[in-house]
C-alpha cells in the first residue's frame, strides 16, 4: 500500500489515479485544507493532517510500503507573506512524517520538490548539480526538507527520491480531476479565467526582465507526465533502494506572453492583457534539463504546450459549467 499525502490536491490526485490504474493500492491522507474529497476517486481516503499525531493511526490501520509526499503549501507569493507557515507545514511537519515512517519501518519516500530550490540559476537549462540558492521561503522550505532527507538516508534503511517539478499544468484527459486552487495564483488557470470571462483581464507580473520579450520564462510540464515520473521513481526505489534527485520539466521555456498567446489560440477567445509590477521572489528564467531522469528512469514527457493548455481548457470549461 502506498500512502499519498496531499492526494486530494492537484498533482497528488493525478498521481493517485495513475498509481491505481497501474495496479497499486493507495491510501490518500489529506486534511482538505487545499484539496477536494471529490478528487479522491481511487483507493482509500483518510481525512487527517499529515503533521498531526493522528497520522500514526493511519500507519496502524494500513500496511504501508512507501510514502509519496505532496501535502505542502506551494505559492511563492504566499510564502513571502507568511514564511513561518511554510517553514512549519512544509519542513517541520515533514520531520513528523519521517519520524512516524521510522517507527513503522517504512523505508521508501518520494518528495514533491521544486525548481524554486535553485533560486536564480547560474546556467540554463538547469541540471541537478547546480547550487541550491532559493530566493523565496517556498523554495527554502523545500531545500531544507531535501537536506533532512539526506540526513535520514545517511542513518540507513531509508531511501528517497526528490522530484524537482518545474511548472505543473494541464489536467486529466478524462476531465475527472484538474487544477483547482482557491484562491488561484497560477498563470495558466488565471489566463483561462480571462478567456472564459470570469476575469476582465490578465496581469503580467513584470515586462522588464532580461528575456527576449521582457516577461518571465518557465518550463510547463503536464501533470500526467509528473504522475508517470512518480510511478517510475517508486519502482526505482523498490528495485535499487538508492536515493536520488531529479528535475522534471519539458526542457522548453515559454514566456508569460507566449503562454497568453497560446491560450488565446487554443480557446479562440480574446481578452485584455495588462502590465503590472514584478512579483517578489520570481526568477527571470527557469528551464529544466531532465536528462538525468530520462537516462536513469527512462522517463520522457509525452505532452507539449498545446496539449497542456487544451486539457486545462477542457477542465476549465467543465468547472465553469458546474459553477
Ligand atoms: N504570472 C503573471 N501573472 C499572473 C500569474 C503569474 O505574470 O497573474 C507569472 C509569474 O510571475 C511567473 C509565471 O507567470 O513568471 C508563472 O507563475 P506561476 O505562479 O504560475 O508559477 P511559478 O513559476 O510561480 O511556480
Question: Which characteristics define this entry?
Answer:
alpha/beta, single chain, UDP-galactose 4-epimerase, domain 1, 323 residues, 7-stranded parallel sheet, Rossmann fold
Brief description of this entry?
With 323 residues, the protein is of the alpha/beta class. The protein has 2 domains: 2-169 and 220-248, NAD(P)-binding Rossmann-like Domain (Rossmann fold, 3-Layer(aba) Sandwich); 187-218 and 251-318, UDP-galactose 4-epimerase, domain 1 (Alpha-Beta Complex), CATH 3.90.25. The chain has helices at 10-21, 55-61, 76-81, 83-103, 137-154, 187-196, 223-240, 256-267, 291-297, 305-322; strands spanning 2-5, 26-30, 44-47, 66-69, 108-114, 159-165, 167-169, 201-205, 217-218, 220-222, 244-248, 254-255, 272-276.
How would you characterize the overall build of this protein?
The chain has 323 residues and is an alpha/beta fold. The chain has two domains: 2-169 and 220-248, NAD(P)-binding Rossmann-like Domain (Rossmann fold, 3-Layer(aba) Sandwich); 187-218 and 251-318, UDP-galactose 4-epimerase, domain 1 (Alpha-Beta Complex), CATH 3.90.25.10. 40% of the residues lie in helices and 17% in strands. It is built from ten helices and 13 strands. The protein has helices spanning 10-21, 55-61, 76-81, 83-103, 137-154, 187-196, 223-240, 256-267, 291-297, 305-322, and strands at residues 2-5, 26-30, 44-47, 66-69, 108-114, 159-165, 167-169, 201-205, 217-218, 220-222, 244-248, 254-255, 272-276. The strands form four sheets. The protein has a seven-stranded parallel sheet, with helices on both faces. It starts with a strand and ends with a helix. The mean pLDDT is 97. It binds uridine-5'-diphosphate.
